[in-house]
């Protein structure tokens, strides 16, 4: 593997790490609760910024999937045997783990095989596993989406992406400002298919060597404007209604997500990082899937620490320690599991 290929992999791992940190933040009080129940401006800004950014967590993961899988030449059979089977096994095993954990914590009254099967089918055992069901759904139609992506010209992909952003974000802003709802059937693509195609386009079709710095500066500026725009929409929504609306956090998410993905890709393509840091990033990135599966378990164990810090320090510190601690603990658990042959192949 060439040095340039390693750098490309590193950029993907950085996006993975950022996305999983945002996922963990999304599962803490820092998301929504802090900014909707505080008079402290610093806490408000911290929580609202994190809440807006963490709306990009799953979209970033889907963009990575599009970047890595939409150009692979795999038959339907290969997709089922290599990918769908693996995710299915993981879903069953870790759902069983959390079901047993719930029984031990008295969240469930007693172990029942029928209740487990029902919970597995409807996705109620572990709420955060909704992404696994979504991912399985995307894998089922991956061969068709691959043909669509590969056959499209760059200009056609840009047209699709621009049209979806214009309708998704534009309609959201229009509805907010006027109070007139735009029929969602007008949106061209399913939002998750949009992120798959966007990841493929930005990750595979753009030659980063040809992207000049001014374009990256513009992209960064657009990200800042989206963040400020989201601040304004959330604040104005509260001024109008007297309550905070979580739905307003998503208004600029498509643009913000694509900007984050593009900027990180370009930075780690253009600039090298020290070898030791690169190894840490690569190791952590390789454990992100396991961290996603185990972060709930880690948060349960660190909850007493979070509550102690909340009572004896201040919310921002408590939440930050909770997020970072959960990330590290889930990472350690993943490293241990990967030493077991079965889980090494799965994770």
TrEMBL record:
Acyltransferase domain sequence ranges: 13-333
UniProt xrefs under InterPro entries: Acyl_transf_3_dom
Presence of the UniProt keyword Ribosomal protein in the record: no
UniProt superkingdom: Bacteria
Membrane topology classification: Multi-pass membrane protein
Primary location recorded for the protein, binned into one broad class: membrane
Compartments reported by the entry: Cell membrane
GO CC annotation, single: plasma membrane
Keywords: Acyltransferase, Cell membrane, Membrane, Transferase, Transmembrane, Transmembrane helix
Record-level Gene Ontology MF annotations: O-acetyltransferase activity
Ribonucleoprotein keyword on record: no
Parts of the chain that traverse the membrane: 14-36, 42-64, 84-101, 128-145, 157-180, 186-203, 215-239, 251-268, 280-302, 314-333
Annotated GO biological process: enterobacterial common antigen biosynthetic process
Protein family according to the UniProt entry: Belongs to the acyltransferase 3 family.
The protein's name: Acyltransferase family protein
Biological source species: Candidatus Eisenbergiella merdipullorum
């Amino acid at each position: 593997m060439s040095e340039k290929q390693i750098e490309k992999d590193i950029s993907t791992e950085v996006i993975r790490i950022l996305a999983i940190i945002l996922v963990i933040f999304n599962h803490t009080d820092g998301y929504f609760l802090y900014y909707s129940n505080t008079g402290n401006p610093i806490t408000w800004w911290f929580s609202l910024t994190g809440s807006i950014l963490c709306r990009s967590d799953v979209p970033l993961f889907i963009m990575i999937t599009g970047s890595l899988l939409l150009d692979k030449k795999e038959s339907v059979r290969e997709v089922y045997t290599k990918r769908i089977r693996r995710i299915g096994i993981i879903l069953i095993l870790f759902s069983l783990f959390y079901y047993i954990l719930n029984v031990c914590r008295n969240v469930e009254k007693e172990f029942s095989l029928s209740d487990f099967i029902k919970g597995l089918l409807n996705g109620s055992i572990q709420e955060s596993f909704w992404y696994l069901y979504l991912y399985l759904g995307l894998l089922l139609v991956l061969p068709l989406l691959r043909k669509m992506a590969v056959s499209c010209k760059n200009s056609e992909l840009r047209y699709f992406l621009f049209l979806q952003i214009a309708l998704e974000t534009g309609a959201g802003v229009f509805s907010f400002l006027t109070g007139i709802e735009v029929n969602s059937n007008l949106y061209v693509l399913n939002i998750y298919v949009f992120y798959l195609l966007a990841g493929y386009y930005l990750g595979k079709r753009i030659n980063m060597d040809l992207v000049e710095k001014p374009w990256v500066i513009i992209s960064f500026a657009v990200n800042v404007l989206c963040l400020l725009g989201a601040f304004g929409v959330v604040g104005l929504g509260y001024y109008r209604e007297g309550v905070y609306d979580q739905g307003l956090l998503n208004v600029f998410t498509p643009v913000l997500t694509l900007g984050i993905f593009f900027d990180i890709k370009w930075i780690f393509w253009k600039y090298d990082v020290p070898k030791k840091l690169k190894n840490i990033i690569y190791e952590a990135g390789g454990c992100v899937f396991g961290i996603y599966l185990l972060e709930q378990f880690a948060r349960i164990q660190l909850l007493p620490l979070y509550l102690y810090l909340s009572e004896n320090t201040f919310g921002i510190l408590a939440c930050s320690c909770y997020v970072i601690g959960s990330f590290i603990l889930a990472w350690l658990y993943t490293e241990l599991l990967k030493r077991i042959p079965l889980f090494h192949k799965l994770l």
